[in-house]
Specification:
homodimer; about 260 residues; alpha/beta; Rossmann fold; 7-stranded mixed beta sheet; 6-stranded mixed beta sheet; 15 strands; about 30% helix; Methyltransf_25 (chains A, B); Methyltransferase domain-containing protein (chains A, B); SAM-dependent_MTases_sf (chains A, B)
Amino acid sequence: MEQPAIGDAFGEMIRDAYAVRTGIGPRPLAGGRLPRPVIEVIERDDGLINGAPADHYLDEPDAWQPHDHRALRLCRGHVLDIGAGAGRIALELQRRGMAVTGLDTSPGAIEVARRRGLRDTVLSTVDGYARAAARYDTFLLLGNNLGLLEGPERAPVFLAALARLANPGARIVAQGADPYGTRDPVHVSYHERNRARGRLGGQLRLRLRYRLVASDWFDYLNCSVEELDELLRGTGWHLDAVDRKDRPYYLAVMERDR
Amino acid sequence: MEQPAIGDAFGEMIRDAYAVRTGIGPRPLAGGRLPRPVIEVIERDDGLINGAPADHYLDEPDAWQPHDHRALRLCRGHVLDIGAGAGRIALELQRRGMAVTGLDTSPGAIEVARRRGLRDTVLSTVDGYARAAARYDTFLLLGNNLGLLEGPERAPVFLAALARLANPGARIVAQGADPYGTRDPVHVSYHERNRARGRLGGQLRLRLRYRLVASDWFDYLNCSVEELDELLRGTGWHLDAVDRKDRPYYLAVMERDR
């Protein structure tokens, strides 16, 4: 059995989801004729596999979760949307006349965001982009993208990159997911397995697969607010406010220490 | 990275799809709270992975494809529904007062079919069941289940088992999918790769994955009507009629040679 090729799985998926939604361009068909929904497949390192419809990456604001709308009200000044994907959030900020840059590591996602009209895009990691002269007032991590902190090793490095990109008074507005409310034995035992290996319970090790392509394996962090607070220590950032109205999801606002 | 356990992936998926549809029993939740759609994940031996919502296995007749309805009009006498799954088709035949047995190799699928009210079920391969004394007038292979012919090696064995289970004048009513209408390079090159290995172009090698469980790898045949006609030679069965109204899907009616 052949292994999938390593590549821009997320971008290929977003390209197809965009083609299906707009009806423009080649897209996967069942039996060569019937459109089929684009599904994101995520493998976890314990062998778990999950699929979820990918269409939500293209959702217009009327289909968003309530916390996405509340997050936008927390933005001010020049916004860097990190993990901007197909530009769902950044496009809305742009429509509202705000200065916004969409950053993503996926060429396919950036391509779709630009085709959808997002003007200011960056294809880079935050580390790479932190060497540029750009400065921001708000860093936005929506769609569970607090997960990009990855874990205790990566989080301080990631946060230091944001500090370099920060104007005075800058804030991070991030949406996280507390993984510990579940009683599903598949997840409870995964959390235990992680802790036994010295990892945070919700420090997921994942890869994306789409058709013939897989991403590399990467860490993605689902953590509690308490764990986030702990991760921030010594980074020069602190929790300023937390909105837990949509549990298990939450919005965390982080600011620079004075 | 751990490999998935080998088990009744299809059955576990059907159990969850049933729990999600009825709202009864434990089912996968996002973040421990929000219901998530049940997705069937299929891997192909070239590394292709596809996901598709599993809910259609539970569809009531008003949501069926038109050829499913036409297939039921071709049934007569005692019906063996092969690969009955969650009992979608068999339950409707039972409602109409027909004698119908639902056969499947998945314990989880049979369990759900019984919970949904299907009275006559068999947990077996057709080969195993052909050793029983039961006899049928119609063998039903819907939901692409002509694919259970697998390929040139398996087809005569499968058809011989049906011959042993057949009353005089019995027919097979099977729904197939012609795979050769596609121009998708992912599929076109897979067909070529198969032929280079002495297989039929659409002789798929697949496994199902659902959460922590995978099926064994199996062959599943998408073939043209012409290939089917060829496969039937010497088996004692022949094509009696073909309904191609819903291309690339078709209904094939096969009868015993006289």
